[in-house]
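Page 37, continued from 36.
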């Protein structure tokens, strides 16, 4: 019943307005005279064997160039990442505390991680770049968007053809060939409320030469995005949080344990100026005073503070004072391609790709943690105590005070990342006299990245327990004066704060050769064969600054010294027509592929394979299925990542405010008790950041995945231009290489059936229960599984034929129903496998759909897009009364694009994204923004295409 209601809701949304991107048919239907040439034989993603795009057994979504254009997006990542098949990969919101992910663009198919989605350009692997975890990813932001002919998205079944990393599937960017003419595109956009402005200019040129035997094309693309600050959106991010409900009387009283508050500030963090706290024994908390010279004034009373760190009356400091919701970055892409037909059967082509990206991010100023001290200790360290502070202490009859210190006069901690990417590839392809086709491919490239961090404290130059300046200045006797009661002078800032550079170098080289052709004839058709070899070399050299590696900053990184590996692979592929032209069997084909790989780092051989059936009953109905196995070897970064020590916001699930959370059967409390922690215990992490240790793992082994897809395609001859496909997918991943994150590790430790698990082994607690550190490293976890159903429907028709109204209409639906999105772990003591399925939680939607209506009349065209994401509860397993509004709202918003062909060579267009200005900042779980819950609000853009 619940499922049927959701289907009905999606259908109603479709009728109200329509969306989207994936389009598997050409915009204009060819007439009969063109039909033969329209269904030409091409290499379709998922196979090296040539065939029509309609004949592949693997479900493949195709996004054509017109659909890309009508999104108004300047970044290909923004086009794809909001589609139903994708989770949130790396995009413009991936900055802040990541130390360098801002400006990255990487796709996450089936929410299995960007490292399991293989992006290709013209069927070849591009040179990769690294994230801040030194994981190699395919950066799609450097692909020349104006030269993209189409994008093919294939789920599963691709590792046997394309090798590792295709666990979730493949996204193949097909570029235009033999491009002719000059195209200029310029666009600017801004949000109605301000922030996140974008602008772009693209110039594309192509020309044939030597009697059309040769072609040269290049594209130059500039893109700039301005920042969007959290502080510029009311109630966004840290200002909206759950706080303990003062009216709560117990876990089963029908009253929410936590309620939503929309005006949270901090008492002692992100502070501007100077502050100190005094203990209020009557309220059992700290009263906070603001210092202005010698004068002290009560700013935040203890009665307004929840859990020791959340101010509920708005009197504290803005948690969003610095961080970006969208990071600013600039990107310059250059791409050129030259091809030449040496003979009628031999073609040479070369590509050069260059990209330069500069991104910036900032977080709160560096600081000294709050600490309790006495008047006597301060005076012993020659720190003068302002008269206002002395008066407050006298009024309280106390000599203890709590002093935090934020170096606000230095400004925010910031990081700037410059990435330079260059790659060259050469292809030679031809055809033998017997009709067999062959090609060779050679590419070589590098990525150099420089991460510059600024305004970091050198902790070897200040004693944070005594607020004393120490270090080299002590020997020379010229240490600058410093007091926790006054703003830091420029001399102090110059002495303590540092700017330092970290470099990352990636080199990749590859050679591939492929051969395809017909083997022999069977009664049902021709048996086709494909085979190939590929050799890749990867090198990673990560060198953090000496200061960062030394451990004298607030965090620590260690280098990856020039590690490398080689990969040798070979594959074979077979397409066998089994039956043809029989009752209920217009054609039945079997295909199979196998790929062997040898990795030098693991000194092991891995095998991937696939098999599939493609059964056409008639011209209207086709069934298809593929079963495959994929293998992904651990990356260099996963194996050799150096030890990294830092501090993160952690929530201890055994804290008194959290112990009633977790699964509704109460196992969290029982497991915390097994750790020796009482139910009323207050964690040392409350209001503080915890120590996190990250590192690589050279003992990692490969992960395996089996994928199964089955579905049908319906193209009824009695309804012209209607195309429907429904496909089931099942991706089952074992020995998954994962790093769960410190917070998830802590929760999974006590939310599993017992504490005899690998997650608890990563947590170090003191005898009193305090968390000393959490180890967050790569491990071979038990597994993960994704199952679901993809639905695509496309229908185009003339309004004049049906209603007598002018114009043509096109309706397109792309939807995904997730059935399972689970992770599994094994109890180390009992050996029992426990699986947790997250489908239905707010960030793992059951339904996600895009619906599009496109209308065209002469020179005018318009597209209305509806994007729907079903949300759900915060925790499927938790108690319903744990949180107020524990059901996150659905995401439903509309994008409008309109274009007009002003002249034969000029098209102008306008667009509005989030047409109804939908906001989701009133809920803690959506207030940070994401692909489905953007903080931009209504966004408007305008642009023009000039063709010569």
């Amino acid at each position: 019943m619940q499922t049927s209601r959701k289907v009905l809701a999606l259908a109603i949304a479709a009728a109200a307005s329509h969306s989207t991107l994936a389009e598997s048919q050409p915009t204009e239907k060819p007439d009969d005279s063109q039909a033969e040439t329209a269904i030409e034989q091409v290499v379709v993603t998922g196979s090296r064997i040539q065939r029509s795009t309609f004949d592949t057994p693997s479900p493949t979504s195709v996004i054509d160039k017109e659909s890309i254009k009508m999104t108004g997006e300047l970044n290909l990542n923004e086009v794809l990442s909001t589609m139903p098949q994708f989770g949130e990969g790396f995009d413009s919101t991936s900055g802040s505390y990541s130390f360098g992910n801002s400006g990255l663009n990487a796709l996450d198919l089936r929410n299995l991680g960007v490292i399991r989605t293989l992006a290709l350009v013209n069927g070849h692997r591009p040179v990769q770049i690294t994230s801040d975890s030194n994981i190699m990813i395919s950066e799609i932001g450097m692909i020349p968007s104006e030269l993209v002919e189409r994008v093919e998205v294939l789920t599963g079944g691709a590792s046997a053809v394309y090798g590792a990393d295709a666990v979730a599937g493949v996204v193949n960017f097909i570029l235009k060939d033999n491009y002719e003419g000059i195209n200029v595109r310029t666009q600017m956009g801004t949000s109605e409320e301000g922030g996140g402005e974008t602008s772009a200019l693209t110039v594309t040129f192509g020309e044939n030469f030597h009697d059309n035997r040769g072609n040269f094309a290049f594209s130059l693309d500039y893109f700039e995005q301005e920042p969007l600050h959290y502080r510029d959106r009311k109630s966004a991010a840290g200002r909206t949080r759950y706080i303990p409900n003062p009216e709560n009387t117990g876990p089963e009283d029908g009253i929410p344990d936590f309620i939503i508050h929309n005006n949270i500030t901090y008492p002692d963090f992100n502070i501007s100026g100077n502050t100190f706290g005094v203990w209020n024994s009557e309220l059992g908390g700290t009263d906070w005073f603001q210092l202005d010279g010698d004068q002290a004034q009560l700013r935040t009373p203890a009665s307004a503070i929840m859990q020791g760190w959340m101010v509920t009356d708005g009197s504290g400091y803005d948690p969003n004072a610095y961080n970006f919701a969208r990071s600013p970055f600039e990107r310059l892409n250059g791409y050129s391609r030259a091809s030449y037909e040496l003979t009628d059967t031999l073609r040479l082509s070369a590509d050069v790709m260059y990209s330069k990206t500069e991104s910036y991010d900032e977080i709160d100023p560096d600081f000294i943690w709050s600490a309790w001290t006495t008047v006597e200790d301060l005076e012993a360290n020659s720190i003068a105590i302002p008269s206002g502070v002395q008066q407050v202490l006298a009024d309280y009859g106390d000599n203890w005070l709590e002093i935090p210190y934020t170096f606000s006069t230095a400004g925010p901690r910031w990081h700037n990342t410059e990435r330079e990417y260059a790659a060259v590839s050469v292809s030679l392809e031809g055809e033998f006299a017997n009709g067999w086709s062959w090609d060779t491919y050679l590419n070589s490239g590098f990525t150099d990245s420089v991460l510059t961090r600024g305004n970091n404290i050198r902790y070897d130059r200040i004693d944070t327990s005594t607020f004393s300046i120490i270090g080299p200045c002590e020997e020379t006797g010229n240490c600058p004066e410093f007091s926790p009661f006054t703003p830091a002078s420029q001399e102090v800032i110059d002495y303590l704060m540092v700017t330092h550079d970290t470099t990352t170098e990636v080199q990749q080289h590859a050679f591939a050769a492929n051969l395809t052709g017909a083997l022999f004839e069977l009664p049902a058709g021709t048996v086709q064969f494909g085979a190939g070899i590929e050799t890749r070399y990867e090198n990673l050299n990560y060198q953090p600054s000496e200061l960062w590696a030394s451990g004298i900053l607030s965090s620590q990184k260690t280098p990856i010294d020039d590690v490398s590996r080689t990969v040798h692979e070979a594959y074979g592929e077979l397409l066998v027509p089994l039956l043809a032209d029989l009752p209920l069997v217009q054609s039945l084909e079997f295909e199979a592929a196998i790929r062997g790989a040898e990795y030098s780092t693991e000194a092991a051989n891995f095998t991937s394979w696939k098999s599939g059936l493609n059964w056409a009953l008639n011209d209207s109905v086709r069934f298809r299925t593929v079963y495959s196995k994929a293998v992904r070897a651990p990356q260099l970064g996963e194996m050799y990542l150096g030890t990294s020590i830092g501090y993160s916001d952690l929530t201890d699930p055994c804290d008194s405010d959290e112990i009633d959370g977790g699964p509704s059967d109460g196992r969290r409390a029982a497991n915390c008790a097994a750790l020796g922690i009482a139910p009323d215990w207050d964690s040392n992490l409350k209001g503080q950041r915890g120590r996190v240790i990250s590192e690589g793992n050279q003992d990692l082994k490969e992960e395996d995945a089996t994928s199964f897809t089955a579905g049908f395609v319906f193209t009824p001859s009695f309804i012209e231009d209607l195309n429907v496909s429904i496909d089931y997918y099942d991706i089952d991943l074992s020995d998954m290489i994962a790093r769960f994150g410190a917070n998830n590790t802590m929760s999974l430790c006590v939310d599993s059936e017992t504490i005899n698990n690998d997650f608890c082994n990563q947590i170090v607690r003191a005898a009193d229960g305090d968390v000393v550190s959490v180890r967050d490293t790569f491990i071979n976890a038990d597994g993960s599984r994704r199952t679901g159903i993809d639905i695509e429907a496309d229908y185009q028709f003339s309004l004049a034929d049906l209603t007598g109204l002018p114009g043509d209409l096109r309706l397109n639906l792309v939807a995904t129903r997730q059935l399972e999105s689970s992770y599994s772990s094994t109890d180390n003591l009992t050996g029992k496998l426990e699986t947790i399925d997250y489908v239905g939680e707010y960030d793992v939607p059951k339904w996600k759909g895009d619906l599009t209506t496109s209308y065209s009349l002469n020179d005018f065209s318009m597209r209305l897009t509806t994007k729907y994401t079903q949300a759900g509860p915060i925790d499927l397993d938790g108690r319903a009364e744990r949180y107020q509004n524990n059901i996150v709202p659905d995401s439903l918003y509309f994008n409008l694009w309109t274009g007009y062909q002003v002249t034969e060579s000029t098209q102008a267009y306008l667009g509005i994204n989030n047409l109804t200005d939908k906001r989701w900042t009133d809920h803690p779980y959506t207030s940070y923004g994401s692909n489905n819950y953007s903080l931009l609000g209504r966004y408007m853009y305008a642009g023009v295409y000039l063709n010569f």
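The first strand starts at residue 42 and ends at 43. Flag for discussion at group meeting. The longest helix spans residues 2-16.
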